[in-house]
Write a structure and sequence with these properties.
The complex is a heterodimer. Chain A is mainly alpha-helical. Helix content of chain A is 56%, strand content 2%. In chain A, strands 1-2 form a two-stranded antiparallel ribbon. Chain A is elongated, with a radius of gyration of 30 Å. The N terminus of chain A is likely disordered. Chain B is mainly α. In chain B, 78% of the residues lie in helices and 0% in strands. Chain B is built from 3 helices and no strands. In chain B, helix 1 packs antiparallel against helix 2 and helix 2 packs antiparallel against helix 3. The relative contact order of chain B is 0.13. Classes of the chains: A mainly alpha, B mainly alpha.
Chain lengths: 263, 99
């Protein structure tokens, strides 16, 4: 039974099936990355592409790279992307309108040209007609083979890469370091500023959302006595996200105030 | 199966990534498209390693992954810094040198 499974695993048919199922899905996901509007959806599709590529690596006799791909890319890199996405604002400036006129047709034409050139070049090249396969060099194990190369031929690049990693970590820390230009105002200073300012309107704090608006959710601005929404009553980040509701639906005037007489 | 099929896939993925870098304006999406191009190149390396029966390609792909990880760390830090000063992650907004 085990031998049979081994034989089946060594034939080309399963790999072809895997390829023809997964490759179109990968291409669709990659195209979707370009076409979807929200950056979060792009990130999810990107994660799918990464996992698919890891499966391709494993199918091609590179299990070490496949696992590194999953751990490093879908684990660490995509996590970092999603983290920054949440930090920067999920929907910040995500419009698909083109700012440079004619950029999109030119880009698509160039892409079709480049892709066609690459594909026709590959189809005419004599490379890969008879793949040698990595079974021979993987005889002692894939990880052992890579380790042997890494610590003999590539030992100098390997050391340089360690320097690069340290430099990148330091660079990221320097870039992310935020130095205050002014000192942070203390609570006492803020309080004094509130009372000594031009107006005493906000002395008791900003207006709460939803007051007089028949709705007290945080995304509904309070209504002022003259019926206009009070902009200060809604959190600024809600406004930036565009999650503030229209207040006209909640105005008091829409209630039927007539009182029915009880018998 | 012909191993060159992987090379076609790699070429197409690289092309899609290149279009994304040109067309999209959100800096994070642009960055993900750069990652897609790097990954497409990695797929070629692994495929060529198989075609030639040689592990050198896999080692180079490994180095590419390390460099890509460094690039992501520094690039995202730059995006966060730009966002902090401009409140925008659009690549078109950081055009102060143009004016």
């Amino acid at each position: 039974m085990n031998e049979l499974a081994l034989q089946v695993g060594q034939t080309a048919a399963p790999e072809a099936t895997l390829f023809w199922i997964l490759a179109p899905l990968t291409l669709i996901a990659a195209l979707g990355m370009l076409l979807v509007k929200k950056a979060v959806h792009s990130a999810i599709l990107m994660a799918f592409v990464m996992v698919a590529l890891a499966i391709f690596y494993i199918a091609q006799g590179a299990p070490f790279l496949g696992i590194v791909q999953i751990v490093v890319y879908t684990g660490a890199v995509m996590m970092l992307f999603l983290f920054i996405l949440m930090l920067v604002g999920v929907d910040s400036s995500d419009s698909l309108t083109e700012t440079i006129r004619g950029l999109r047709p030119i880009a698509i034409t160039a892409a079709v040209g480049f892709g066609g050139l690459m594909v026709s070049l590959l189809s005419r090249a004599t490379l890969g007609r008879t793949a040698v396969g990595v079974e021979g060099v993987n005889a002692d194990g894939n990880v052992q083979g890579i380790a042997q190369l890494l610590f003999s031929t590539f030992v100098w690049p390997f050391e340089v890469v360690s320097a690069l990693l340290i430099t990148a970590a330091l660079g990221a820390m320097v870039l992310a370091h935020h130095q205050r230009v002014q000192e942070r105002p203390t609570q006492r200073q803020l309080s004094i500023a509130r009372f000594r300012g031009d107006s005493l309107a906000n002395t008791a704090g900003l207006p709460a959302p939803g007051v007089f608006a028949r709705h007290n959710a945080v995304d509904v601005p309070a209504l002022l006595p003259d019926g206009t929404p009070a902009a200060a009553s809604v959190n600024a980040s809600l406004k930036a996200r565009g999650d503030v509701l229209e207040t006209s639906r909640f105005e008091l005037g829409t209630i039927d105030t007539s009182v029915e007489e009880e018998k | 199966m012909d191993a060159a099929n992987y090379l076609y896939l790699s070429a197409l993925l690289f092309t899609i990534g290149a279009v994304g870098v040109v067309v999209r304006r959100n800096a994070i999406v642009v960055f993900m498209c750069v990652e897609l191009m790097l990954n497409a190149a990695n797929l070629s390396f692994v495929t060529f390693s198989r075609i030639n029966g040689d592990l050198n390609g896999q080692v180079i792909a490994f180095f590419t992954m390390v460099v890509a990880a460094c690039e992501v760390v520094v690039g995202l830090a730059i995006i966060v810094t730009i966002y902090r000063s401009r409140r925008s992650a659009s690549v078109d907004d950081a055009s102060l040198l143009m004016r």
